Amino acid sequence: MKELVNNKLVFRNFFSLTLAQGINALLQLLVVPFVIIKIGIENFGLVAVAQVVMFLLSTLAEYGYGQTGSRSVAQNRTDTEKLSKLFYHSIYLRIILCSVGFFLLLLLSLIFSFIQQHFILYALAFVFVPGQALLPSWFFQGMEKLQWMAAALLLSKILFVLLVFLFISRPDHTSLFIFFLGLGNIITAIAASVFIVNRYHLKALGCSLKEIKRLLIEGAPVTAANLTMNLMQYGNLFILRLYSNDLMAGYFSVAERIYFAMKQVLTAFAQSIYPALCRINSSQYKIYFKKTFLPFFWLMVAISAMAALFAPSIIGFFIKEANTMSILIFRMFCIAVPVVCLNMPGALVLLATNQRERYFKIFAIGLFINLLANLLFAPQYYAMGTVAAVLITEVIITVLVSLSLFKYFHQNQLHY
Fold first, then answer.
1. HSE-CB of 385 using CA atoms within 13 angstroms
2. Does residue 112 lie within any of the structural domains?
3. Cα angle, residue 174 at apex, residues 169 and 175 outer, rounded to 5°
4. pLDDT digits (tens, 9 = 90+) for 304-353
5. What are phi and psi of 145, to 5 degrees?
6. Is residue 416 domain-resident?
7. HSE of 151, CA atoms in CB hemisphere, 13 A
């Protein structure tokens, strides 16, 4: 049972990552009232929609390394040659994919008029894509050195906040918001990469087309799944903007950002326990989840309930003219947090047991449901229709991944 769970290690990793991601989320949230005062809620909506596009492009550029890369690192921790190969080819692949991402941005500007009208803003915002893609968080995750990963993430957000407070002071500075976010990430990515190379004595390697091809094939299912998940998560605002305007997008985005900050805790927990799931035997999953997941789930239920109770005060902190609808939107998001938490065991087991195709199929179904619900509800109910689509999607995904988990345990004659 020694191999099962090093609870101290899991707690240390979770605490480090949660603290850093909590501070990261808090810093970004604290910036929101300042930015809204300086550029206005309508321009904030413009920035929020542009940020959605950059999140999706960065998902393509990251190419699933948060799962496939960290898994490979966790399994080859003592093999310097393999680690070097993984690290350098991740950089080569991401540079290629960032170039593809900028070409896709040009295509999007030809399709959507509101992107074309503000293309300079979108071009500056594109700095976020290589900044996010080149952060070597996956390497720290695989090594279970999440305190270093946490420090890197924290540094990038501190740089971002400093730049925002120093240089954004009026509406025509709107385009600098996402640019500064990406710039902070790029500086941090360079520093973290130098640290990794020196700390683990990685040897510089040339680019192998064969290895790039292998990584493309290996990462395709997870990347497709990540794109579907991020389309479901971030695409809601983009679809809402198609049927409304920047002002409504701004109001919706404030509630959504608080929701995303709450979900950061879920992400930190998942990243903390995933490396152990990759190593332990499947027969030990049940006791592992009982010891780690169940207490965490009830904690998130309590946090969500408290957030819903104090929703008027929370929304009022960010928007002085907060209305009943924005409060209701946030309360509906609070319901979604425990639902998302419930899909964690099934999703992590699918990844840890290399069932990537099933993982992708589930989230592809979720994306289809999300798009359908948005197209049905957003044109008529606007922001309320969009948040309803989020809830419907998360419930369906949770049901599907839970069924997959039960099926896996049944096939392996395990009990859950």
1. 19
2. yes
3. 130
4. 999 999 999 999 888 877 678 889 999 999 999 999 999 999 999 998 88
5. -110, 60
6. no
7. 8
Give the model confidence (pLDDT) of 360-376 as tens digits: 889 889 999 999 999 99
Label residue 50 exposed, middle or buried (CB < 10 Å: 0-12, 13-18, 19+).
Answer: buried
Gap between the Cα atoms of 91 and 211, Å rounded: 12
- Burial label for 323, CB within 10 Å (0-12, 13-18, 19+), is exposed
Helical segments of 168-245, H only? 176-199, 209-243
d(CA 237, CA 253): 7
Query: What is the chain's percent helix, strand, coil content, to nearest 5?
Result: 85, 0, 15
232 pLDDT tier (thresholds 50, 70, 90): confident
pLDDT-based confidence at residue 171 (cuts at 50, 70, 90): very high
Distances (CA, A) of 12 to 18, 226, 310: 10, 27, 30
The percent of residues in the chain predicted with pLDDT above 90, rounded, is 51
Contact 352, 277 (CB under 8 A): yes
Which residue range(s) make up the domain with 71?
7-411
Instruction: Please give the C-alpha separations between residue 99 and each of 104, 105, 112, in angstroms, as whole numbers.
Output: 9, 10, 20
Residue pair 322/316 in contact (Cβ under 8 Å)? The answer is: yes
What tokens appear for 389 in the block? 């689509």
Residue 172 lies in a domain: yes
Instruction: State the DSSP string of 287-339.
Output: HHHHHHHHHHHHHHHHHHHHHHHTHHHHHHHH-TT--HHHHHHHHHHHHHHHH
Of 153, 208, 195, whose CA–CA distance to 25 is shortest?
Answer: 153
For residues 24-37, average pLDDT = 84
CA-to-CA dists, residue 122 to 64, 189, 219, 234, 360, angstroms: 24, 21, 27, 16, 29
Total count of domains within the chain: 1
Chain-centroid distance of CA 140 in Å reads: 16
End-to-end CA distance of the chain: 18
Cα separation of 408 and 346, whole Å? Answer: 9
Does residue 1 fall inside a structural domain? no
Residue 173: closest CA among 321, 33, 47, 320: 47
Single-letter amino acid, residue 345: P
